[in-house]
Amino acid sequence: MPDRWWNGAGDRPAGEAETYARLEAAVRDRDMRACDGCTRCAMRCVDGIDLSYPEFARLVRAAMAMPAPERARVLGQDKVLHWGEGAVVALCPFLDRDTDRCAIYPVRPLICRLFGYAPWLPCPTGKQNDSIEGAVEIMVEYASLERHPLRAWLRRYGLQLPGLSDDIE
Ligand code: SF4
Fold first, then answer.
1. What is the pTM (predicted TM-score) of this model?
2. How many domains does the chain have?
């Protein structure tokens, strides 16, 4: 059980979890009817995005709750894209390359939830073009939370996610 694997950190600032929960609630009820699940935005799922601590804690619990073979399958995929002329992009470790879908979708970070719903994160097909009201203010408050990439949080708390390579980010 993931909770036996890790119970979370005891050194987090007061109010952090509540602030994050409020921000996530503000983006939860967006109108997603224009999205037909085309997965074109998957190539924007890059490695190394910053996570707040509540997102990190929830993500590692979800990852550890995955059946071990499934977790190994997703985390073991080649996530490096070569776009020619030396351009290389590392994709998010949780992007399932077999389906181009997010393996931890229910607990994806806030920035992933805003994709297609903020002017600076446009839908690549142009089908979804509604902006969430207050998206800028949401991002400003989100940026005030302590945030680090996944591997930096893992190092900080002395954790290892089985199957996650540490040579990218
Ligand atoms: S967490 Fe999921 S939605 Fe977010 S970048 Fe990774 S694969 Fe994409």
1. 0.91
2. 1
